Predict the structure.
Amino acid sequence: MIIHISGSPGAGKSTLGKYFKYKYRNAKVIDLDQLYDNIMRKLSNNENVREIDVKKNIKKYYQAEIKKYISKYDKLIFVGLSFPDPRVEFRGKEIRFKPFYVDIPTKYKYFIIVPQYELYRRILKRDFNNIIKNSKEYFNEVREKGKITVPIDIDDKFWRDVHKKQNYKFYDSEKVKTIVEQLVR
């Protein structure tokens, strides 16, 4: 059984993933952000992989990793957006590539809905905590540029529209939690 839990940034996907990871040891929980970071780390450390290879083949690498997990586990919960960030670090520099959607092959697809004001509150809180955590880097940016650039992704409509096209069911996090608990027991 394969389950995918998605949602806008700040919707609570990772929080639910952590909950399932500790409550249901019989299911493997994969955080798609961490999976993506691991892929990029492996590619960066492979001297035979060039930047152009990453840009051309990142979707294939990502899909191959997902397939490995699918073939290995009976109960699998993927948590996270299936649209990786098109800006990544590769060997110490930022590279960009065309955004892409990776389909998680399952009939159990859930998108966590959160009221807009709550979503904004969560995203801003997370981003400001990140500024505090990395204050030295932000201070240097202010000193060099005279301002701070904070990337905030709050385009909830875009994420909802993408997932509607892919036949996700839309529920609040408690309902998704209840449904997934019934599936994994």
User: Anything to note?
Assistant: The longest strand covers residues 2-7.
